[in-house]
Please model this.
Amino acid sequence: MTGGSGKSWPHMTSREEFRFLSDLVMARSSADQTIVRLRDHHAGTTRFANNQVIQNVDTRRGSLAVTVAFGGRQGTASTTDFTAGAIQHTVARAERIAKVSPVDPEYLPPANPCAFPVRETAKPETVAAGPSRRLEYANEAIGQCRMENLLGAGIVSSSVAAVGIAADNGLFGYEQRTDARFSLTVQAGDATGWSAAAHRSIDHLKIQERTLAAIRKAKSGREVQELPAGTYPVILEPAAVAGLWTWLIWSLDAKSYAKGTSPFAGKLGHLVVDERISLRNSPDHPDLMGEGFTSDGLPSSESVWVDHGVLRQLAYDRFTAKREGVNPIPTLEAPALSVKGLPVASIQDLVKNTERAILVTNFWYIRPVNDRSLLLTGMTRDGTFLVEKGEIVSAVKNLRFHESPLRAFRQVQAWTHSMEAVNAEIGKVLVPAMVLPRFTFSSVTRF
Amino acid sequence: MSSPTWDEFAELALKRITAAGAEYGDIRIQDSRTEHIEGEDRRIASIRDIHDIGFGVRVLYHGAWGFAASSILSLEEVPRVADLAVEIARGSASVALEKVRLVPEPVHRDSVVTPYRIDPFTVPLEKKTDLLLNVMETLHRQEDIARSKASLWARRDRKLFVSTEGSRIEFDLLAGQGDCTATALYESRFASRSFNTPHLRQGYELIEEADLVREASRVADQAIEKVKAPVVDGGLFDLVLDPEHLSLTIHESCGHPSELDRALGYEANYAGTSFLTTEKLGKFRYGSAHVNLVADDTEPDTLAATGYDDDGVQCQKWDIVREGIFVGYCTNREVATKIGAARSHGSNRADGWGSVPIVRIANIGLEPGSATVDQLIVGVKRGIYIEGHGSYSIDQRRYNFQFGGDAFWLIENGRRTHMVRDVIYHGITPEFWNSCDGVAEQSARRRYGFITCGKGQPGQSGWMTHAASTARFRQVQVIRGEGQS
Model:
């Protein structure tokens, strides 16, 4: 920890130490194949509500998982105790499991060693950030809310993780990953406004800008009217777009596709959304959370998943990829969605150009209703407005939607440049705000 | 030299907290072991034996909280973490407007052990994998079954809680669960049907008594019946909801809104607030007179019956809704002061040593009524009988909800006739519970546990059990859950 105390963080598992630990595991293992995975995670969160700090925490958890295999029989044991005795015990537990496990017909030996891409996944300013920096940021947001006589609730968090994978075939990967987050919900009576950020660098959280955005939203929501459920044009802000696309991305499992239990069954190579939409993995993008390698020891790389509306890629486990002859296996930890054509400059411009629509800041509690059609439900949250003749005319009571992204994104009317988006239920993505001509809301709530 | 005992580590931490001038502090040292065996499509896909040990120190300094935790249990790390917790609390105190106060709780020195007949960690692994393979083979005996899943889960938590007030409580807690799922294909459709034992604080006898293989046969049959079943048109239906289904309805529409920290705005940025605001306590008609929702953290076998919560408060039984009126919250020692309560209800729980305790839903259950399940069905002219969990979603104040289910049967003229599929119902929480006009008797009561209840930032998983007897609800809005492709 740095800051007021002048103390430093406790020592974190270094590359050399992980090498030493993994060598120790290999030396103790009698298995045909052995894999070691490291996650040493130091994280802190300052949480506030009603303009007060309510929770202020700092946790260090180191974890080592050992997977061993004897002739296709495998077992995994993990421990948070890195002493030699505990590691030996963990290897013995994994071996005991493997020796009595049935042969897994899908077992594959560890991935071949390769040179993983070296990415700037750890930012020193985030590594150095401790409770005092988080408190300073929380205070900045709280102070703005107090000045406006509004109530703020939110978090500032920062973390660093040492992540490693090693196998007895020479596979070895180690990198440090930082993560900094800010989110704020501002309450103005019954109305709420929200904003959030996530970045490798704590310096990029833009606390003031995002606090003012959440305050603006909350204040705009004071006058509220109720609209009947029905199908409306919508302006979806980036977090709302990201919420829907997250479920679409989670449904790209290749094994389900092969078994016929995927909403995309038979659609690989076919148009699934508007032909101007593309989805890529962009691990080198400075605002995304790209990684050097996956938990399976595969390199993360640029890949195209949806190309001008056509589904080009599925998410493969190693066994299914081998069966289907897919190599290399693409990853999607840094999704970037774009729309070909001329974007408008801002969300305000989308509003200006819209005759009538519902503007959605964010969705909440999105869950699948029907896995075949990828029909989803969820609620609007923290800023839902009626737009008429290019202006926001009032807030509206929150609505429940019933919609499939495969239907909703068939036609995009207008869009912005891609922007950073994040919320509590999704990872970090880059997506545009979009205007969709038809979006179905099935009911209204009380606020 | 032998390594220090947990008590010696605890004493070391609490001495430093006290010496630093904190008014309250506690330490939880926890050693958790989880075994999770997952089968998929006739194979054992993964066996994980997870050992997780560490400690967390919580400090209240000048009316503000600090918490620090570490997986390194050593003579160097314990004082570092205790000092860090104090330093963090000092930072929180420097910006505090209102000081945290804790309602009093007697000092407890106790030991809590889960009773069990068969320790799941001593059952041979081959026996468990054989069971899951057998279950999946049974599911696949029906040729229309395209995919299968089966799993077993067991967890043991050994924990020591020691506070500066003098409480010292040892825990040795066990929990387990098993399940299986079949997915059937028919034409271009697919549908799944599941069987779950409840998550309960029992030994492996829970699995043996459940007879997963027998249930697998039924599950496969019903998955096929479900995928071939007709879709029901939307409209107003009477619903008869089974206890497993109701456990989720209770959890989402009663459990969460009755968490006092939510009502006070602590969760406004994530899980949300609650429509059960404090001025409604003792006055608000939440449901019909048939609706009695009781929190009981003393019932044996249930997940929240841990003897004490992570405030060191003894587990209790209390009313949440009595004859339809909202009368009680789930509380901890901090938020109980905000409504003038003399004592916490003991609902402060962390999901492990690395997390700070927060208010969690208790074991809230629907008290049995006097009807039989058959009587509830006989009284329905046009309705749907729903079993198990399906789609679920609810707004952040817990008004507007929507639920699916795992299996649905049409009720026509007082008879359960045939399966239907893709049923979704939605409503507003108090309107829905006010439409309840019958709850089945004690013999229909079942218990279902939850171990993945998400709340808090950083996110934590809460554990609790919801018991219910089958209940009937009149004229609920049903919609087709079949999307357009």
Remarks:
- Chain B has two domains: 6-228, 235-480.
- The mean pLDDT of chain B is 97.
- Chain B has nine helices and 24 strands.
